[in-house]
Fold:
Amino acid sequence: MIILSRAVSLSLTHSIRVDMLTPSQPKPNLAAKGYQVVVVNYADTHRQDLAFKLAGVNTVISVVSGPAQIALIDAAAQASVRRFAPAEFEGQAALRPQQPDALDRGKSAALDRLRHYSQTRGMQYTSFVCGILYERFSPGGMYSRNIGLRSGIGAEGDYLIHISQKKAQIPYGTNGQPGAVCMTSAEDVGKFVALALSLQQWPPELRMCGDRMNVLHLANIAETVRGAPFEKVQYNPQHMALALQQARTSGEIQVQLRAISMIATANGRFDFATPNLNLLVDVTPKRFQAWLQEAWQGH
Structure:
């Protein structure tokens, strides 16, 4: 999620100091750009190292997940950090299925921890909800932008549309309609998050959206941008359930994650009607077709 953290920091005013935490060696390239790079130990069971390095920090925006994020939340509470934003950056938590959720990657546990510290320490938190990142449809997918490196489904074509191969999977919900998604570019996510820092109070969820459409329209836009027809395969709920069952039988984890993402899309997991953050801050996000045209120019 390097690109997200950079997008946020680039959108901040010079009056705000930006510390970038890293579990590895210092990053000279980041330091050269004026970022305060701090090496931390997420494995410290007592959180002392993290808490010490978070002393005086007002807001933490996390781009780590799993145990590292839990450690970061605990340390932030110890250091009396005022606000914390977990590494969400997708759909609304309320639309996720009950456990087990293969797409969770520790997010539910992080939100539970934040609710606890909100009640016991008064630490504010919010989930930044942006739907699907446009970068999923980049040449090379999200991986080419250093996003979702541990997701297992960040390569081009892992999510619904393989633009290079001119292929699209169109999941349909139980209502007989193609699934719909809200989408935002990583650059615009950075702008939204940076401006959200000026809000006096954070609600539990701040939703942003650059564009909203059903996935058939999304595939049609990809066709227009590439100037060629795509092979479109429609999937109803029964088809998707069968695909997931077959992937589980064969033990193909990546195929399972693709099927689960397709089912989640059909069920509306990445769609929402009220992007409240769009109304609270002054950002004009880039529309999907304009972004896609720019991303694929020269390819």
Observations:
- The first strand starts at residue 19 and ends at 22.
- The chain is about 35% helix and 15% strand.
- The longest helix spans residues 107-120.
- The radius of gyration is 20 Å.
